[in-house]
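Researcher: Quick test of sequence recovery. Tokens follow.
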């Protein structure tokens, strides 16, 4: 959902950045369907450019808009964790299929060669993991 709002940030003059001062990335951003208490720092790093013609920023906007033309959208999440976002996406993009968490599905595949692989792109924030644990059904 945050990627779909990048154009909104430009339209409101919040991106590209005019310069970063202390606390600027903590600027609250309202009107992000399904996501409350969003700040600039919570959006992709592509909005932190100071170049209004930044290729990657405009590419992410273009690709996010193209999501509405897809047959389906698959997300690495699950309904109980991000239900408000998934509900907000429903009228914007075609059917959304939350199939995650992929790392749990990945390790359930009975293939010894896959056991040594790690599908995470970055180190998980342990504080976030504790918050997820509170939401997960036991």
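Model:
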């Amino acid at each position: 959902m945050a990627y779909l709002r990048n154009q909104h940030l430009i339209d409101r003059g919040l991106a590209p950045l005019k310069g970063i001062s202390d606390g600027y990335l903590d600027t609250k951003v309202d009107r992000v369907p399904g996501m409350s208490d969003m700040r600039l720092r919570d959006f992709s790093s592509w909005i932190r450019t100071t170049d209004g013609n930044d290729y990657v920023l405009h590419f992410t906007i273009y690709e996010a808009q193209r999501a509405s033309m897809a047959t389906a959208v698959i997300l690495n999440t699950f309904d109980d964790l991000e239900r408000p976002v998934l509900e907000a996406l429903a009228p914007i993009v075609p059917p959304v299929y939350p199939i995650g968490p992929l790392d749990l599905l990945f390790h359930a595949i009975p293939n010894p060669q896959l056991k040594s692989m790690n599908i995470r792109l970055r180190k998980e924030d342990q504080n976030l993991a504790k918050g997820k644990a509170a939401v997960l059904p036991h």
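The chain has two domains: 1-69, 70-138.
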